[in-house]
Amino acid sequence: MQWKPHATVAAIIEENGKFLLVEETTERGNRFNQPAGHLEDNETLLEAVIRETLEETAYTFEPTSLLGIYHWKHEHNDTTYLRFAYIGRVSQHQPELGLDDGIIRTVWMTMDEIRSNAMLMRSPQVITCIEDYLSGKHFPLSVITHL
């Protein structure tokens, strides 16, 4: 069997000092995460992060920059993830859409609230991405080429 990492996307969304997270069910209980998910076939990374954010939050996401690319091996299931994290803003909340399977709710949290709930984050990437965002890290969207 050939090893392959899982390509995922995540949306880093901050408004008035609070970050948009989703509470979701996992094999380890309820956890918090950025709106995130897997890249699907015939989809660009930008299309994936826009789709995942809409499915998990019922908000339209507009990516403005790439925060970074994160490599992480999950200690519980031995899966390796490559996470493409995008910074952007949301608009056009459409609560009638409902949320994706497994998503309990959306929640806006301050960094202090996120840190105080660190053990409830889905992965260490959640806090790392927000810390990178707060440090001013970002790259133009053009850094990734889709052919």
UniProtKB/TrEMBL annotation:
Keyword Hydrolase in annotation: yes
What name does this protein carry? Phosphatase NudJ
Cofactor(s) annotated in UniProt: Mg(2+)
Query: What does the UniProt keyword field contain?
Result: Hydrolase, Magnesium
Its lineage opens with: Bacteria, Pseudomonadati, Pseudomonadota, Betaproteobacteria, Nitrosomonadales
EC number, UniProt record: 3.6.1.-
What is the similarity comment for this entry? Belongs to the Nudix hydrolase family. NudJ subfamily.
Q: SUPFAM superfamilies, from UniProt?
A: Nudix
A molecular function (GO) held by this record is: thiamine diphosphate phosphatase activity
Q: Which gene encodes it?
A: nudJ
EC supergroup of this enzyme: hydrolase
Which CDD domains does the record cross-reference, listed alphabetically?
NUDIX_Hydrolase (cd03675)
Organism of origin: Methylotenera mobilis (strain JLW8 / ATCC BAA-1282 / DSM 17540)
Q: How the protein assembles, per its UniProt entry?
A: Monomer.
Keyword Hydrolase among UniProt keywords: yes
What sequence ranges are listed for the domain Nudix hydrolase?
4-133
